[in-house]
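hey can u run this one w/ 2-acetamido-2-deoxy-beta-D-glucopyranose bound, need the structure tokens asap thx
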Amino acid sequence: MTGKADLKLVMLMGLACLAVVCVHGDDLQVGRFSGDRFAEEIRRMRALKTSSVRRDSVSSPSPSPGPAPPLQVGTSPRVYPATAYGADPTGKSDSTEALLKAISDAFQGPSDGFLMEGIANLGGARINLEGGNYLISKPLRLPATGAGNLMIHGGTLRASDDFPTDGYLIDLSPTTSDSLSSSSSSKYNYEYITLRDLMLDSNYRGGGISVINSLRTSIDNCYITHFTSDGILVKSGHETYIRNSFLGQHITAGSDSRERNFTGTGINLMGNDNAVTDVVIFSASIGIMVTGQANTFSGVHCYNKATDFGGTGIYLKMPGLTQTRIVNSYMDYTGIVAEDPVQLHISSSFFLGDAFILLKSINGVAKGVSIVDNMFSGNKGLDIVRLDQANGAFNKIDQVVVDRNVAKGMNIKATMARGSAQGNGTSWTVDFSPVLLFPNLIKHVQYSLSSGDSTFPSHALRNISNNRVVIESNIAVPANVFVTVDQGLSS
Ligand SMILES: *[C@@H]1O[C@H](CO)[C@@H](O)[C@H](O)[C@H]1NC(C)=O
Ligand SMILES: *[C@@H]1O[C@H](CO)[C@@H](O)[C@H](O)[C@H]1NC(C)=O
Ligand SMILES: *[C@@H]1O[C@H](CO)[C@@H](O)[C@H](O)[C@H]1NC(C)=O
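ok here u go:
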């Protein structure tokens, strides 16, 4: 009995906490109240909230109702509301300077020691866009003084018609170009910056977000559109985590008459150790361009531009050093291209509309590649994995496993295969060339010869050239041969 009563109480307290959170937002303590005291507390907090709504504001240049109370440095919450700086949430007038001032104030706000050496801990300061739509005419570039533990969230940024086409709406790079060129890994610009719940409209002028030489950056629930360069550029640094986001040059839901003309890149990763998780790229010439190592992709849905129209879903352009994992993703009429893959894993993904994986030889290297347990669907009978050997054949092949994929309307390619042949004579041939990925390469063969004949022939493996396995016997017998081949084992 008491158990039940306790449960009710807990539920009531749960509701109470929820209500308090709703009323107070994130700048007041969450308390636990019950009954009348709770209702009274709500009324009191509401009143307090109304009177203190601008207590974290600085003096506002915009015509705002009533004078803002003085900013109490040190006791005020570190929330920097865009409108308090005169930013125009209707998107009519330019808000660049106001937003830059909010950012600059946040950087100069109280800090609690350091994250990485030299990176001030801003303690979770928030630049709140308050659901507004702001027009900006130049990039919101973070100050050069390294800082971290800061969030920009909750609104729309739109590039003006004179926004620089080489710029990004939000730019995590220091203002001086000289510190950019240093590739030192011991010094980062920013750490733990979070960009969340943002719509970024580049207005066909430049890109959305640029993250340079930063550490542990989060890009979460962002909708980035109308970019002409990159939706998101990540360069140097590491651990930029991009998740639950939507990127597209044009706002479309597929089958768009302009698709052949889509340009730009959804996400350009020129760095290591980043993750792209649950992200849709719905319009761009290249969905994700990767020129760094040890990046991971999961739950990515690319329908950015069909391969037939010259598009690529994920392009791994780092010959010899990819170290990339692509799992649980959806390549929708657009595929994956990997140059000289070394340590590449692609699994549990779905390829629709004749989308395929292209391994492109640059120096002939394919090592440590597994493409397993994927689904392919199409209607043109294309190979699920193809080789581009225009620059020379793959000739350094080691530990490549393409196996256990399933296909409908496409041709399975694999590095392991089984086959059989039946005949009455001295020679049996099983031709694996339609299925094996690499031409004229068999590293391992196993076979058995089965015959019900009264004689026991001697037999041997005679030839594997051009992926055709030939077994011969010394005398003619009616027999079946069963053969297993593998291209991928180490030589
Ligand atoms: C694509 O671009 C070409 C030239 O750049 C233009 O002539 C054509 O009309 C465009 N197509 C569509 C569907 O926008
Ligand atoms: C196999 O071929 C031989 C001679 O060509 C013939 O005598 C024999 O009947 C054949 N066996 C079967 C099972 O067809
Ligand atoms: C294996 O077969 C190919 C033709 O497929 C032939 O050119 C080659 O000489 C054969 N090798 C041997 C050892 O018989």
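Residues 24 and 50 are 10 Å apart (CA to CA). anyway lmk if its weird
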